[in-house]
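Assemble and predict.
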Amino acid sequence: MTAAIPRAQEQLVTGTELVAVRFATTKGLGRGYDPQQVDAFVARSGAAVDRLTDRLTAAEQELQDATTQIQQLRDRIDRDSRRDEVQQAVTVLTTAQITADSTVAQADAYSARVMAEARDLYDDTRRQAAVLEQETEDKARAVYQDALDRVAAVERENADRLAQLTLTTATVQQELDDQTAYLRTLRDATRTQMETFLEGLLDHLTEEYGRAHPMAAQAVAATPTSTARRSRRPDRPPRRPTSVAGRTFTQPPGLHQQQTTDNPAGTPPPATEDDGSGA
Amino acid sequence: MADIDTSALKENFATVAARGGDDVALYFYSYLFLKYPETREMFPPAMTRQRDRLVGALVRIVTNVDNGAVLVPYLEDLGRDHRKFGTLTAHYPAVGEALLATLRHFSGDTWTDRLAADWAAAYGVVAAAMSGAAETAALTDPPYWDAEIVEVDRRTFDIAVLTVRTGVPVPYRAGQSLAVEPSTLRPREWRWYTPANAPGGRDIELHARLIPGGPVSTALVRAAAPGDRLRFGPPFGRMTLDPAGQRPLLMVAGSTGLAPMKALIDQVARDGGRRTHLYFGARSGREVYDRDAVAALDERHPWLTVITAVSDDLRWTGVQGLVGEVAAAGGEWSGHDVYVCGSPVMVEATVKQLLAVGVPEPQIRFEEFGEA
């Protein structure tokens, strides 16, 4: 057979084309195929080619679908995994931020606690100090008041004592005055007695002397008072303790300062022992 | 916000928030720092307070999402305030992305495309308001003012008066507060403090009270030294003088609440004087920490009367008692403009007592000590 099949290799032969092939008939040698058998065979082959072509097309379509599906799945996997990474990253950042916040919060809380304790301590101390100051001030005021009271008491006491002393002084003064008056009275009485006694003594002596010397007796009888007699004896020694009838007489101080003025003219009063203490 | 299903947003937010506000904020910042690591350095190492602020802001925004009159001024203040952190307009989209990712993560199955779109739109409005206000402010003001500590005067072991000098005068009104960052000692931690003098010059007087556990207050009172650097943010607060007001003034201050009062008195003196009563309260005589300066003010200004009340010191020879009670009983105040500043407990009690003696509520302005 010299039939030509002028087609490209990738192009499939269809059954129709096969059937349409025409073979040249042989020329008298009697060795050709039975045309009917050949036609039947070609027809069968054509049908088989058509079937195969259909199957191939279907398979290609399936392949196409499967490939598309695989690509979609791949894409999805790709997308999902990226979202997961994003989520992971976000979670990591969030965890890190929470950790940072917690650390700072702990530091702030510690600082707060320290400051709060310091402030409480400061407040307590301040209040205690204020209470102490107040108590101290009250005490100081009490002490001061107490001191003032004591001073006042002491002043009052002193005033009382002063009053008492004054009283005492007055009493003493009074007593002194009384004693002085008494002494004066005593002096006067003593003087009077002394004078009386001495007068008597002198009278006695005069009498005795007069008996011995009548002129003296007459002279004595001429004078009325005893002081005159006394003044006639200027050479009489200063008064000294005289012993008369066993009794000693001392001159009371200042006795003769209060001499009466009955001295006769021209005769100085006798010398006196004067210790200066006036009556 | 037109075309946005705000009720759905609120419902979704409630669902998300039910998972735990702190966890939501944790996820948000982790996502933001993961995706945009350069933003990490804008925040302090410890983020607990920052997360609380974020949750608070989100709650406030979502609650008022339909109330533009309240929401917009809040967003504009917030946007201007954010400038001090170095926030730029370019940062807002990153924040939006992190926010949406967070909401989606916690919404689980309830997340829908509609929600995503609505949230994105809502965030766009918020970001526009904030960055718009920030850009407007950038035309006239710097984002922050650098300053240096000139003097630290420790009056007690936990109260200090600092004198701080800025490069240029900071534009605030007497009685307003400034955000303060101790740049040298505690970078990126911001707290509110009130200048104790009226504006105009480069020197600012700050009264700092140490709060146990508070990083900024501890640093300012115990560790600050001349030469340390500070940063001030934009001013904030409504405890200011009414410019047209003629009423006499009553000021009630507890502890370092004295600072705004000194500033107000400084301003009143510059304006010509107005009859003013200042009641200052402390727990003990030692905590009357500014005695000399206040006595000098009392003497210099005939229109000013100062009464100091001490509540817990038996050695105090002056007025004894809680300052709020003493002030309320001290006169007829219903015709006065009243200013109260102190601890939250003190402010609440004082305002209540003043209302009880007949002071009209609109005439009372108050501020409490902020967080540590």
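The interface with chain B takes residues 86, 89-91, 93-94, 97-98, 100-101, 104-105, 108-109, 111-116, 118-119, 122-123, 126-127, 130-131, 133-134 of chain A (CB under 8 Å).
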